[in-house]
Each structure stands twice: as C-alpha cells, then as structure tokens.
Predict the 3D structure of the following.
Amino acid sequence: MSALLQAKWEPLRSKWGPLLGIAVLGVLLLVFAPAVLSDFRLNNLAKYCCWALVAVGIGLAWGRGGMLVMGQGVFFGLGAYAMGMHLSLEASDGTTPVFMILYDPTTGLPAYWAPFKSGAFTIFAIIVAPIFIAGILGFAIFKRKVKGAYFAILTQALAVALATLITSKIQWTGGDTGLTDFKTFFGADLADSDTSLMIYLITAGLLLACLLVVWQLYRSRFGELLVATRDAEERVRFLGHDPANVKLFAFVVAAVMASIGGAMFVPIVGIISPKEIGAAASIFMIAGVAVGGRAALFGPALGALAIGYGRSSLSEQWPNGWVYFLGGLFIVVTLLLPGGLTSLFGRLRAQLRPRSAAAEPAAKPATADGMAG
C-alpha cells in the first residue's frame, strides 16, 4: 500500500513541491522574519538576500548550464553603481556630489551621471545595462565556443578589470572609498526604520520572484535544452538547436539577477566600493552556491543565505579568523558533498526508500487463472 501511495505522491511532489517550498520560504522571509528579528538583524538578512539573488542566477548558469561564472561581480557592480549614482544625486539635490568637488573643485557633473537623477531611468539601467553587456560578452564568448576553465578565467578577469577601472577613476566613482553618504531611497528617508523594512520586503520579494522565474525555466523546454547543452552540446547542435543561444539566454538572465542584487545591496549597506565587485567578491558568491548545491532550485539561495550569516556572525566573534572557517567549510562540502548541503535530502530519501520497500510483504505468485495463489 505504501508503495502505491509513494508512486502517486512522487509526481505531485516533483511538480508542486518546489512551489510549496517557495511559499514556505516566502512566509519565513516576509512574515516570520520581520516579526521576530531586530532592525539590525533584519538589515543583515536583507544583505544576505542580495547575495542570494546573485546565487539564484549563478545556479541557473552554472548548476544547470555548466557555465562557471566567476565574474558576477561585474553585473553586481553595474546594478550597484547605477543605484549608488542615483542615491548620490538624491543626496546632493541633483547637483554635483560632494566627493567630486573634493577631488576636483573645477569639475562639473559628468554627462553620463545626469540621467541617473531620474528614478525611472535608474531602474531601466539596472535591468537593461546587464542585458546589453552580458549579451555582447556572451555572444562573443559562446559563438567562439569558449567554455570550461577558459570561460571561468575570462569572466573573473572582467570583474578584476572593472574593479581596477572604478578605482582609477576616483574623481568620477569615488575610487577605493566608493559611493556613500546616501540620505534617501527614492525619496524615503534611509534613517527611518519603516524605510529599512520596506527595502527588506522589496529585496525578499525580488528573491522569491527570481526563484519563481528559475523554477519555471527549469520545468520548461528551455530548461531541458540547457541541461542537454551542458551534458551533450554536440548532440543539441545535431538536433538543430544552437547551444550558444541557449547558454547566452541563461547567462543574460543570471546577469540581470546579479544586477538587481547589487542595486538593492546599496541602500541596505549604505556604500558600494570596488572591493564588493572584484575577484574576491565574485568567488564569495560562487562559494555560497557550491555549499548550498548548485543544481538544486533552493540550493544556491540557501547556501548564499547561510554563508552570509556565517560571514557576519563569525566576523563578530573572530574578525581575523572567520574566513578560515568558511574556507574549511567549503573544502569539506566540496570533498564530501559535491552536490552541496541540499543533496543530503536526496541521500536521505534514497536510504529510506529501500527500507520502506523491504517492509512491504512479498506479493504471492499468480496462478494460471490470474488469481493469487
């Protein structure tokens, strides 16, 4: 009887289980967390959600597409600096930001800064800029069949290059100091606790929305093509599909999610600087995905939330030693759980199934008239 129930339950679990999981996560993030956490802890959770947004996109590109994107700091930085420019102009009432005047009193507001006075243009740039840049980069990379270690090195080199460029243009970007001293978020006072709660709810809502998007992609025809491209690229090409286009779409979606995460990171933390988008930051984003489980729907997000919490809590106790603990955790998970922490659930189910099947009484052999003997 239990085997029959399990056979009926398995398709339902596969179809609606992820959606139920997203609903549970939504209740935890949108209802439970604001009710029990202090303003400080809730602000930290909002920061972890920003990293989780990036991780969900990495899970799509790396976990399902096989593309080790080690330069998501590029797109995180695009969204972050777009938001930072808008908030800086809000703080200066649309005039030249203070840091530009300090570095060069004769300079005016650069032409490319002016459009970011508009909140609508800023949101447009956060979405469109990563689509445009990731589209160009992805087209150039995938059409030339660059993959594997070369792809990973190239994407990380782009993150290093962007961080170096921002550092060198100190009079326009704030250099190593970055953009800071924000006062408002689209007109709302950042010092107000209600504004902080609003930003958290927006960030958590965006994380849930991205999970829904990725869930739909995984169960669509595109999701099947993405996995097929990862496992047998030449077969996909033989069947009439261009693997480069499949990879490009996943790469662009991951870039947009990273940009959104970067944009929400700025009003939460109150600063954006090159150290948040360089090689080290990009590796940190990858580590959360690997620990959580890159191929699972919830693995990247949960891994990023866990790593973010570990980073904050451990740094409070061991300011100089937390990185060694997280590094050790990454090594242990990589060696013992290549599928990430979420693979533990699959292993547990696999161990329980034989026991439940063994507990079933053996079926009696049928006689010639079809009745059990």
